Amino acid sequence: xxxxxxxxxxxxxxxxxxxxxxxxxxxxxxxxxxxxxxxxxxxxxxxxxxxxxxxxxxxxxxxxxxxxxxxxxxxxxxxxxxxxxxxxxxxxxxxxxxxxxxxxxxxxxxxxxxxxxxxxxxxxxxxxxxxxxxxxxxxxxxxxxxxxxxxxxxxxxxxxxxx
Amino acid sequence: xxxxxxxxxxxxxxxxxxxxxxxxxxxxxxxxxxxxxxxxxxxxxxxxxxxxxxxxxxxxxxxxxxxxxxxxxxxxxxxxxxxxxxxxxxxxxxxxxxxxxxxxxxxxxxxxxxxxxxxxxx
Lengths: 163, 122
Description:
The structure holds 2 protein chains of 2 kinds. Chain A is α+β, with helices and mostly antiparallel strands. Chain A has helices spanning 17-25, 27-33, 131-145, 149-162, and strands at 7-13, 39-45, 52-59, 62-74, 78-86, 104-113, 118-126. Chain A is built from 4 helices and 7 strands; from the N terminus they run E-H-H-E-E-E-E-E-E-H-H. The longest helix of chain B has 25 residues, at 97-121. Chains A and B meet through strand 1, helix 1, helix 2, helix 3 and helix 4 of A and helix 1, helix 2, helix 5 and helix 6 of B.
């Protein structure tokens, strides 16, 4: 288990922890920021263990669906959920664009109060994953941190030109 | 959803990422959006040699983003717009999800605090 690829992102927000927690747990606020530059629709949001967060991201080529199943909620310091890719009927399913992307990711978010604000750490590890899924996640994770900024900026420009 | 022209093949994935990671190749793609162009025409604005352009084109071809006409002597390069659109749509899904989202959260938190400020002041 220890050799599973792990995606970690740390971020400090200049806001009190209670506010960060609110932005994360009020579905109206969450929909406002969640999703990279896309329209996000939250169809269901039950903030309790085994509660679900049904999330739709409206992508260029069609919607992308995620089903999150909360596992632990420790207000205001920690939440854990299973981050699943889903089909339009909210069944856990492989991402059609990328079949080897892990269907389930164990996601842990911690919120730490600091003098200057709030430190958030988000960790994702493949869950019940096949070898192919683990390899895919490992590869994407490395690619993401390997300076794809310019490539992604280009993608945005392309969308404007072609769209 | 329609299957993208190629499978989840990790090597294919690598090819697209690799192709887009280079500034010259991105510029070549941008140029080809306007229409097909020969190696000669592509080399000119970039002040790089024709062999270098050919090499970049090979990378783009391997990624399925560009095709070369076979029969014509000047073998103009053409954008495979469908593949590019598909690839781009697909890449957008895997944009640094959290980095971009967190930028948006940053902005929202700032906004929330400003609103709170106004609330307490009045």
